[in-house]
C-alpha cells in the first residue's frame, strides 16, 4: 500500500521491520526483493532473492525473478557475457521448475529484448498453457506480434482476448489505447485510456494515463478544427 502511494521509504521500513521480527521468513525477503527491483536497487534485490532461495530452495518465483534482475542489470550495463549468463539461468529455471508460468513469461521478455522473437513466442505459449486466464500474458504476446511480424490484426486480437479474460486489466486498455492512437482511431483510444484510468492502482500510474489521454484528445481537437485526418499505421 505504501508503494502504491509512492512512499517507498515507509514501505522499505515495514519490510525491514518484518525481517527483524522473523529472520527466517522467506516471504519477507522475496517481497522486499520485488520492492528493490521497483526502486532500481538491483544488487540489494538479488541479495534478498538469494536469502529467500536459501530459506526456501524450491521457490520458483524467487529463482525466476532473480534471473530477471540479473538480466536487466547486465542488459542495461551492456555486458554481453553477463547477459548470456542470465539467459542460461533462465534455461535452468524453466528446466527445474517447468510449471512456473512466471519463469516462462520473464524469459520471454528477455528473449524479446534480444530479438529472439520466435523463442519468445514459444515461451508465451507455454505460459498461456500453464495459466490460460492470465490476461497480462496475452497483452505481452500481442505486443510481440507487432514488434516481430508487424501483425496488427493478431496483436489486437490477442489484446482483445486479454480484455475478454479480465475486463479489469488496465495494462490491456492502456496498450490498446496506444495502438489505436497509432492507427488514428483517436476516439477509441481516448475511450481505452479512460477505462485504464478508472483501474489505475497509483497516482503515478493515473498521471501517466491522463497524459496519454490528453495527448490523444489534443490530436482529436486539432484534427477537427483544421479538418485533418490523423496519421495511421
UniProtKB/TrEMBL annotation:
It is a single-pass membrane protein. It is found in: Mitochondrion outer membrane. Keywords: Membrane, Mitochondrion, Mitochondrion outer membrane, Receptor, Repeat, TPR repeat, Transmembrane, Transmembrane helix. Pfam families: TPR_8. GO terms for cellular component: mitochondrial outer membrane. Its main location: mitochondrion. SUPFAM superfamilies: TPR-like. One of its GO terms (molecular function) is mitochondrion targeting sequence binding. The keyword Transmembrane applies. One of its GO terms (biological process) is protein import into mitochondrial matrix. InterPro entries: TPR-like_helical_dom_sf, TPR_rpt. TPR repeats lie at residues 26-59, 101-134, 170-203. Belongs to the Tom70 family. This is Mitochondrial import receptor subunit TOM70. It comes from Liparis tanakae.
Amino acid at each position: 500500500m505504501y508503494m502504491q502511494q509512492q512512499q517507498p521509504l515507509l514501505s522499505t521500513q515495514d519490510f525491514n521491520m518484518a525481517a527483524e521480527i522473523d529472520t527466517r521468513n522467506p516471504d519477507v525477503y522475496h517481497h522486499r526483493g520485488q520492492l528493490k527491483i521497483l526502486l532500481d536497487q538491483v544488487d540489494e534485490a538479488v541479495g534478498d532473492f538469494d536469502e529467500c532461495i536459501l530459506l526456501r530452495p524450491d521457490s520458483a518465483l524467487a529463482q525466476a525473478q532473480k534471473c530477471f534482475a540479473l538480466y536487466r542489470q547486465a542488459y542495461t550495463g551492456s555486458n554481453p557475457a553477463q547477459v548470456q549468463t542470465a539467459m542460461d539461468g533462465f534455461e535452468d529455471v524453466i528446466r527445474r521448475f517447468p510449471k512456473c508460468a512466471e519463469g516462462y513469461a520473464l524469459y520471454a521478455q528477455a528473449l524479446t529484448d534480444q530479438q529472439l522473437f520466435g523463442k519468445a513466442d514459444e515461451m508465451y505459449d507455454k505460459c498461456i498453457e500453464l495459466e490460460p486466464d492470465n490476461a497480462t500474458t496475452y497483452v505481452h504476446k500481442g505486443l510481440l506480434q507487432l514488434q516481430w511480424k508487424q501483425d496488427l490484426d493478431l496483436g489486437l486480437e490477442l489484446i482483445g482476448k486479454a480484455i475478454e479474460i479480465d475486463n479489469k486489466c488496465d495494462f490491456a486498455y492502456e496498450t490498446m489505447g496506444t495502438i489505436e492512437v497509432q492507427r488514428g482511431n483517436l476516439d477509441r483510444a481516448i475511450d481505452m485510456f479512460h477505462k485504464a484510468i478508472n483501474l489505475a492502482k497509483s497516482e503515478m500510474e493515473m498521471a501517466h494515463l491522463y497524459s496519454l489521454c490528453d495527448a490523444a484528445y489534443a490530436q482529436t481537437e486539432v484534427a477537427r478544427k483544421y479538418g485533418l485526418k490523423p496519421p495511421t499505421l
